[in-house]
Task: structure prediction
Amino acid sequence: MSASKPDVRELICVNCPMGCRLQVTVEQGQVRTVKGNVCSRGDRYARDEVLNPKRMVTSLIVVPGSREPLSVKTRTAIPKDRIFDCLKAIRACQVRLPVRIGDVILPDVLGTGVDVVATRNLPDAPCQGSGQTA
Ligand code: SF4
Result:
């Protein structure tokens, strides 16, 4: 049996303004080498981005009684393939006034272990749902 050809992926590290261009060699589902990084954060970023990409999610929620929507975000990044479901869970969320910045709006969204939190104050409450989907 012949060995599979390594796949070389090009990424730009987003961890600092240097924006190093990274070349990541992937073979049999494993990262073999990372080149182009100036520091170890670039190596970590490349491995995570190839094997387990994650993103922060931000969104808005309409809150009854408020003229302005509530802006929310995940406290940390969640797996990229859960973004759509996360947005759905946020859309289904019912929030009551008042809301304070940092309030947990959806605890442990989709069982990721990550909370969705308010990023602004709305004068004159946490969601009724758990964010879990069947
Ligand atoms: S590899 Fe290091 S220096 Fe280069 S962009 Fe990433 S964090 Fe910045």
The beta strands are 7-12, 21-27, 30-35, 54-55, 58-61, 70-74, 78-79, 104-106, 116-118. The pocket of iron/sulfur cluster is lined by residues 13, 15-16, 18-20, 37-39, 41-42 (CB under 6 Å). Residues 7-52 form one domain.
